[in-house]
Amino acid sequence: MNLEAIIFAAHPDDVELSMGGTVIKLAKSGKRIGIIDLTMGELATRGTPEIRQRESFEASKYLKITLRENLRMEDGNIKLDKDSILKCSTVIRKYKPQIIFAPFYHDRHPDHITTGKLIKKVFFYTGLPKLKTFDNGIELQAYRPKKLYYYFQTYDVHPSFIVDISSEFEDKMKAIRCYSSQFYNPKSKEPETFISQENFIKYIEARAQYYGFKIGKNYGEPFYTEELLEYNFELDFFQK
Fold it and tell me: How far is CA 62 from CA 16, 31, 55, 164, 177, in A?
């Protein structure tokens, strides 16, 4: 099974928070989308890996994705090593996405930083025939996606482009709320964290409104690319 896009994330819920609306928009357009979570989020102050996994399955229904896998790397200790490169390259060679997404490599959380740097390495090395990867004993051929895009998490950087998610915003928030162990829940008796306070969800909403305003829409999600994008004059120049 080939996928049109794969989104790599350090933890379950990273994708929902950062680009959930874009995932829904792509899926609604008929694209097959996969999410690859690197860890189970086992170091999280609230909840458990088992709870987090159930929450990610529920959230995936709202995202309308085709596939979600977890590579079960060590939370808090994602490595930039050969084993990690091979695991992520295997995923790319197996599903052959046209584009991939990763967290931007400047962020509050060290795992987000490492994941962004790791996927940049993978984006290059997965195209090298001498890098050997196998799936169920079968050697996978070298394959490199066309583009690597970065999504933002806590820190904001001037984006390369913004996606209108006005029609997808409500489902994005429903997916986020599936993670009741992590985000604001007045009934929870667990310790408060940076993301469990009520203002954090308000920030997510305000951020989407801010980027939507930048493009004349109600809600938007920003992305960054290190490479220049081709502008199709005939198709794009006169779009409203």
Answer: 10, 15, 11, 18, 11
Separation of alpha carbons 124 and 65, rounded Å: 25
41 and 54 in contact (C-beta within 8 Å)? no
Average pLDDT over residues 186-209: 90
The fourth-level CATH superfamily of domain 5-236 is LmbE-like (3.40.50.10320)
Whole-Å CA distances, 91 to 5, 28, 118: 12, 23, 14
- pLDDT of residue 232 exceeding 80, the answer is no
Closest CA to 22 of 238, 202, 219: 219
Residue 240 is predicted with a pLDDT of 57
pTM, entire model = 0.94
